[in-house]
Structures are given as C-alpha cells and as structure tokens.
C-alpha cells in the first residue's frame, strides 16, 4: 500500500499546531524580589539552595542584609525567601518540584541574582543542583563556607580578601565542574574537598598567611590545586589507580615536599585520597 | 434619577455648545459624542468578584511557596489605605486593588494585591512588607521584616512556548542531520553490510526483533562475563578498560547500523527502488535512508511541536520513544542475525529465481539482450 501525503497538508498541520501553540503557556514564569534592611552587625547564617538554572551572587555595600531577584517557573519550582529573626538565618533560592512530566531537553532556566551584605559576618552555605553559577565572594565577611554541587558549572572568584578568618571551606563536588579563582583571599584555615565524578580547580592565589590544611577525597573526578610559588607544600597521597604527578617534589618519610617547604612563610599541608581520579598540583 | 440628571446636563451642554459654535466659527470641529452608559453597581461588583477570585487563586498558589505567611483573602480590604503619621495599627494590613501608604506604625505585616506599598519617612513596619503584583518602595521608613515583590500574573508565556518549540525542533533537526551524515559514511564504507542487514530485517522481522531484545538483555551480563574472564586470565587485566570501551563502541555501532537498516526498509516502503546501475542503487539507498530517517524521527518532531501542552507532549514523547526503541531493537537484531552484514546468505527468493526455467533457457548468441541474473536480495527480487 502506498501512502501519499501531500506537502500542503503537512504544512497546514504544522502551521495549525504552531499557531495554536502561541496561546498555550508552556511555563508559568514569575518574579520574586526579596530583601531585608541591614539593622544589625550580628553574624548571620545564609543558606542558598538552588535546584536548576543560573545564579549570580555578589557582595553589596548597600544598607541591606541581602537582596534577591528570582525568576522562576511555578510549574517546576518554588521560591524560598525565609528569614528567621531569632536565629538570624536566611534561606534563599529555589526548590525544584512540581508535577513530573516527560519533557523535552531544553527549557528556559530560572535565574537568580543575589547580593549579600559585606558588613555582616556570614556563615555561608551554597547548595546547588544543576546550576550554572557565577559567585563573587570578594570583600565579604565569611566565617564558614560550604559549597555542595550536583551537575553544575560553578565559578567562584574572590577578588578581595575576606575580612574574617574562614574556619572551614567545605567543597563537595558531585558531577560538577567547579573553579575557584583567587581562593587564597578567603583566608581559610582548613579546606575539605570531596570530588565525585566532577572536577575541581582550586586556585590558592591571594592574600593569606600562615598554614592551610587541605584534605581531599577524589573518587573518579579530578582535583587540580594551583598555588603561588612561595607556598611550601607537603603532600600525603594515598592513591589507587589514580594519577599523582609529583614532579618537583621530594619524598621524606611518607610525604612529598616541595622545594623550600621548611623555609616557606606560607604552607599548605595536603592530604589526598584518590581512587581512579586525578590529582595535580600546579605551581608557576 | 442620576440618569435623568445626566441627560438634562448633557442637553444643556449641547444647547450651549450649539449656540457657541456659530460664534466661534468651529462648527466642523464639533462632533456630538454618544452618551456614556453609566457605571452600574453590577459592573463594579463583577469586577470585585473577579479580583477576589484572582486574589484567592494567587494566595492559594503562594501558600505552597517558602515565603512569609500571607493573610487569607477575607482579610484583604478593597481600595487604597493610608496609615497616618502618629497612628499605630495592628497588622496585618492587607489591601487589594490599591496602594498602602505607611506614614505611621504597623505592628505586623503589610500586604497588597495589585497595589504598591510605600513606607514613607517616619513610617515603620515591624513585620514583612509584601506586594503581590505591585512594588515596594521604602522612602526613608523602617521595615524590620522582609521586603518582597511578587508578580501576580505569568510573564512571557507565549514567547517561552515559541522558544521551547523552536529549541525542540532544532534538536530534532540536529539529530536528523547527524544521522544523515552517518548514513553517508556508512554508504561509502559499508554499503554492502547495510544492505545485508536491511535485507535480513525485511525477511525476518519477527526473529530480528526477538534477537534484538535478547541482545539488549544480554548486553550487561555479557560485558560482565568478558571483564570477569579477562580478570581471571590475569594477563588480560590490563585489557579490561580497552575491552569495556571496545564492547560499548561495538554495541553502539551495531545499534546505529540496525537503526539505519530500519530506515532503509522504511524508506523503501515509502518509495520502492527502481532498477538501475550500482551508482543509481546507492543514490536510491541514500534517498531511502533519508526518507526513513525523516519518518522515524517524525514522532519526535510531533512531540516537539506539542511541547506547549505537557500532557500531550509526554504522550507524544512516549510514542516517539517506543517507535525509536522498536526500530533500534529490530535493527540490532537484524545486525546480530546477519553478523553486522558480514554473513550474506542466498535467499530462497534468489534460489527460486535461479532455479526458474526462464533463467536456465539458453540465450541466443545474437539479436537478443541477455537476461539479467537475479540478485540475492528481496528488493532486487521485487524488480
């Protein structure tokens, strides 16, 4: 049997569907703008939870504790803007949810543009899902920093020194690609890294002093550590089918030491456990 | 009563203008306007009811979101409201269809629906300030809680549906282009294999489907078996990554070859191949491939066009997935049965044709064109 489909019919059907589609709402977009006036210099706990889309965070010197503008699709997500006055905790962002449908791959993503006060000490936690993130932390007062990412592309830049001593910088990289530029400006005492299937590029350039302790677990991903030339590095690496290039390092006991480690003013003690993943230290 | 007075007033106005126009010499400029229908209380009530319904729906939607708690619809007062300087009002102050001006103090939240909130200099709100479908302006006042602007109506729905359709169609077109490029490569490098797999699929569709299913089921266990065997051999441990990658590549190649063979069969069904030279056959196969790919991807295009309607899109995608899966499974089975087109069996069509008396009849030495020998493929047998 021979099927004859006249091109005019195809065109007519396509135009009908397209014309009808103009009136249909595929996504229900809303905007939420939220802020809080700066009334106290007491420390605040900030948690940014963001499921999917793009996010931009930056410091602000305005008289606000935070400011957020979120554009989201009510069909798939719900905004979060909660401030607990007693605990001085802020939860911002967007939670993915809504009815599950088998949808096409491309959808217009949500966007969040946020600003955090540079006058208040912050215990900052970023929980990002499938997100493209551009985070500027320079000049903030951060006492603790947690970054948890799923399948994200995260760029963090610290273009000015942290006004506070950062106790712990906790990075949990799932299947994400995370880049931290001028991370030394965070002035972290301890950096904890977990890399799953993603990659982390951590640059320790910046104004920090003393010692920093870095512990890293790398599964099948990659961890690249960039340090300034004056930083002395000691590495304790436990690897299984993983690659650790120790060119320029000398082994003493169970650790690898960079040249000039003993005389260095700034030191990084790195402890790495890598399975199948890659670990690399890049020094100029 | 009001209507009567309005008529009288308008009549007086008309008379006055009628007297003045000749004096002013602007008679042509005067065009009497129809009398306006007075705004009845029914229209106002209908508008208020509509706004209340909209407010209720919006509050119901926002109730599920992690934002400060909003008052019930019944708490909203219609029209603008001003909290005068020196006044202290217990919140929440909820206003619908008008703005809220705060000069005094509100102990609690201030919420507006389709209206702005202005906290003037000296004004103070101890709770949150939330404008739904409006904006919040803090002009020197104090807000101790959060400030929120929420949009009341959806934004840019039509534009985003257009974007969604166009992106989905571009994705389908991209896949189509990739498959056509692969088709050309296969035609150039392995046209015989493709023809053999297509013939195997056409002859034994049922068994090809079963073989394809079996192949899918056996994919993972076979991979595990290969890896275990290599590990047990000790020497082969180093080959495990290569073997795993090679296994996946071979499987992907077989599925692709099978899908293209299905496309050839579908394309032939759409427009059977006319007889011709080898080059013409290749051109015909390429045309059949393109037609087949377009036919097999058309359910995905339909799903892309239906993307503004999520339920219809889900159904269409399900149908498209099922179509593609059947095409890949049957094609994989045919590829497995024909060993990727390497095993070329003589068909019973060809055997029957070879045994026919017409072929065996001696050809005269001159004056008659020699009969063509039948080709061992169903498509050729049809000719």
Could you explain the architecture of this structure?
- The complex is a heterodimer of chains A (284) and B (383).
- Chain A has 284 residues and is mainly β.
- Chain A has one domain (30-98, 107-282): Pectate Lyase C-like (3 Solenoid).
- Chain A contains one helix and 21 strands.
- In chain A, strand 4 and strand 5 (89-96) form a beta hairpin.
- By secondary structure, chain B is α/β, with parallel strands linked by helices.
- Chain B has ten helices and 13 strands.
- A five-stranded parallel β-sheet of chain B has the order 1-4-7-10-13, with helices on one face. Chain B has a four-stranded parallel β-sheet with strand order 2-5-8-11, with no helix packed on it.
- The relative contact order of chain B is 0.07.
- Residues 1-38 of chain B have low confidence and may be disordered.
- Chains A and B meet through helix 1, strand 1 and strand 4 of A and strand 12, strand 13, helix 3, helix 6 and helix 7 of B.
Short description:
Chain A has 1 helix and 21 strands. With 284 residues, chain A is mainly β.
Q: What is the succession of H and E elements of chain B?
A: HHEEEEEEEEEEEEEHHHHHHHH
Return the structural class of chain B.
Answer: alpha/beta
Largest sheet entry of chain B? 5 strands, parallel
Helix fraction of chain B by DSSP (H/I, runs of at least 4): 55-70%
Label the overall shape of chain A: globular
N-C termini distance of chain A: 72 Å
Strand order in the largest sheet of chain B: 1-4-7-10-13
**Sequence of secondary-structure elements of chain A:** HEEEEEEEEEEEEEEEEEEEEE
In percent, how much strand structure appears in the residues of chain B? 5-15%
Most extensive contact: A-B, 43 and 45 residues
Q: How far apart are the termini of chain B?
A: 93 Å
- Major sheet description of chain A: 21 strands, mixed
Quickly name the level 1 CATH class of chain A: Mainly Beta
Q: Tell me the count of domains of chain B.
A: 2
How many domains is the backbone of chain A divided into? 1
Let me know the average pLDDT of chain A: 84
Helix content of chain A: under 10%
């Amino acid at each position: 049997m021979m099927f004859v489909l006249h091109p005019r019919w195809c065109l007519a059907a396509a135009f009908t569907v397209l014309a009808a589609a103009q009136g249909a709402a595929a996504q229900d977009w809303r905007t939420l703008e939220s802020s809080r006036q700066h009334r106290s210099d007491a420390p605040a706990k900030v948690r940014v939870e963001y499921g999917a889309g793009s996010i931009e965070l930056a410091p602000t010197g305005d008289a606000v504790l935070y400011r957020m503008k979120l554009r989201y699709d009510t069909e798939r997500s719900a905004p979060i803007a909660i401030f607990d006055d007693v605990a001085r905790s802020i939860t911002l962002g967007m939670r993915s949810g809504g009815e599950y449908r088998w949808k096409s791959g491309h959808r217009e993503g949500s966007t969040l543009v946020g600003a955090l006060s540079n006058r208040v000490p912050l215990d900052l936690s970023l929980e990002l899902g499938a997100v493209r993130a551009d985070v500027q932390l320079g000049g903030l007062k951060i006492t603790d920093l947690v970054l948890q990412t799923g399948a994200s592309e995260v760029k963090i830049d610290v273009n000015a020194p942290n006004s506070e001593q950062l106790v712990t910088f906790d990075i949990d990289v799932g299947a994400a690609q995370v880049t931290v530029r001028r991370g030394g400006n965070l002035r972290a005492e301890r950096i904890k890294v977990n890399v799953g299937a993603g990659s982390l590029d951590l640059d320790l350039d910046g104004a920090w002093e003393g010692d920093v302790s870095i512990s890293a677990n790398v599964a099948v991903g990659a961890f690249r550590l960039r340090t300034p030339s004056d930083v002395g590095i000691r590495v304790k690496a436990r690897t299984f089918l993983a690659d650790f290039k120790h060119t320029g390092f000398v082994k003493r006991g169970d650790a690898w030491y960079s040249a000039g480690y003993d005389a260095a003013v700034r030191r990084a003690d790195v402890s790495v456990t890598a399975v199948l993943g890659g670990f690399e230290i890049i020094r100029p | 009563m009001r209507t009567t007075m309005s008529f009288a007033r308008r009549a007086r106005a008309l008379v006055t203008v009628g007297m003045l126009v000749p004096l002013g010499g602007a008679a042509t400029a005067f065009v009497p306007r129809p009398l306006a229908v007075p705004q009845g209380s029914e229209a106002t009530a209908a508008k208020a009811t509509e706004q209340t319904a909209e407010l209720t729906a919006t509050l119901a939607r926002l109730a599920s979101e992690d934002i400060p708690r909003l008052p019930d619809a019944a708490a909203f007062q219609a029209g603008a409201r001003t909290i005068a300087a020196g006044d202290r009002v217990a919140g929440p102050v909820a206003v619908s269809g008008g703005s809220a001006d705060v000069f005094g103090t509100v102990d609690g939240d201030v919420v507006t629906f389709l209206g702005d909130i202005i906290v003037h200099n000296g004004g103070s709100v101890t709770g949150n300030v939330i404008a739904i479908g409006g904006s919040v302006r803090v002009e020197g006042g104090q807000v101790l809680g959060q400030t929120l602007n929420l949009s009341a109506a959806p934004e840019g729905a039509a534009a985003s549906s257009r974007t969604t359709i166009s992106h989905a169609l571009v994705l389908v077109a991209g896949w189509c282009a990739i498959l056509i490029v692969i088709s050309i490569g296969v035609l150039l490098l392995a046209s015989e294999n493709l023809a053999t797999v297509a013939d195997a699929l056409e002859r034994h569709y049922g068994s090809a489907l079963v073989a394809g299913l079996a192949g899918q089921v056996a994919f993972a266990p076979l991979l595990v078996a290969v890896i275990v065997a290599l590990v047990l051999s000790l020497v082969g441990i180093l080959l495990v990554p290569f073997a795993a990658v090679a296994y996946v590549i071979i499987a992907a190649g077989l599925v692709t070859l099978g899908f293209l063979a299905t496309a050839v069969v579908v394309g032939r069904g759409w427009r059977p191949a006319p007889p011709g030279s080898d080059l013409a056959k290749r051109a015909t196969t390429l045309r059949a491939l393109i037609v087949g790919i377009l036919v097999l991807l058309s359910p995905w295009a339909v799903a892309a066009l239906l993307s503004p309607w999520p339920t219809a899109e889900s159904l269409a995608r399900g149908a498209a997935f099922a179509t593609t899966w059947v095409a890949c499974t049957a094609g994989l089975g045919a590829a497995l049965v024909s060993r990727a087109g390497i095993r070329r069996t003589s068909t019973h069509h060809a055997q029957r044709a070879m045994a026919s008396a017409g072929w065996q009849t001696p050809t005269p030495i001159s004056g008659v064109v020699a009969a063509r020998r039948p080709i061992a493929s169903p498509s050729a047998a049809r000719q």
